C-alpha cells in the first residue's frame, strides 16, 4: 500500500464524519420544527381567548415532546419568518370575527441543536479514521525496513522493485534486475566476476563476454536513474558505488544486510 492511498482513505473517512454530522444536525433542526408545529396546532385547537396568556405558554410547552424545548420555546403573534432562529409554521386562529396568526419560536444555540442530534454515526466514522491512521503509521513503520535508499534509487524488498526518487519504477531487464539485487545484498556491494557468472549463467562455461555486455548496458541506466556507478574492482570484479561518501553507503548496506540476510 502506498502512503498516498492511506492518506486518501483517511481523508474520505474524515469527510464522511463531517458530512454525517452536518446531516444529523439538519435532521435535529427538522425534528425541532416538527415538534413545535404539532405543539402549536394542539394549543390553538383548545384556545378560547384572542390574547396570549401564561396558560397558553404552559399548554404549548406541555404539548412539546422534546424535553429540552420546554424551557426554550415560546408562542408569539406571528412576526414573519426569521432566518436566524428556529420557528414553526404560521398558524391562523379564528374566533368569530377575530382572525389572528400565531407562531412559535425556539431559542436554541448551535450547541443545543448539536446536542439534540444523533452523532453516533459521525463519531463512528471519526473513530474509524483515527484507527485507520494509527494502523497506517504502524504499517509503514514496520515496512520501512524493507526499503533501501542508495543515491537516487529506492529498493523495496517486499516486491523486489527498484524506483527513482519520483516513485517511478526503473525498467531493468530480468538479468539486470538479478545483478542489481546481487549488488545490494552483498557486503560493500562488491562482487567478483566468478560469483556473478556462476549465479547468472551457471551452465555457461565462460560468460565473461556476456557479463561485459551486461555491465556495459547497465552502467548508463544506473548512472542516470539511480545516481550510482558501477566500477571495476581491480580487474577481479565490479562494485556498485555512490558519488557520496562511501562510508555512509557502507554503513547503510551493513544495516540492511543485518536485517535481510
From TrEMBL:
Membrane in keyword set: yes
Example of a GO MF term: DNA binding
Domain OmpR/PhoB-type: 167-240
Gene3D superfamilies on file: Winged helix-like DNA-binding domain superfamily/Winged helix DNA-binding domain
SMART domains in the cross-refs: Trans_reg_C (SM00862)
Sorted UniProt keywords: DNA-binding, Membrane, Signal, Transmembrane, Transmembrane helix
Signal peptide extent: 1-20
TM segment ranges: 121-140
Example GO biological process: phosphorelay signal transduction system
A Pfam family annotated for this UniProt entry: Trans_reg_C
Name assigned to this protein: Transcriptional regulatory protein, C terminal
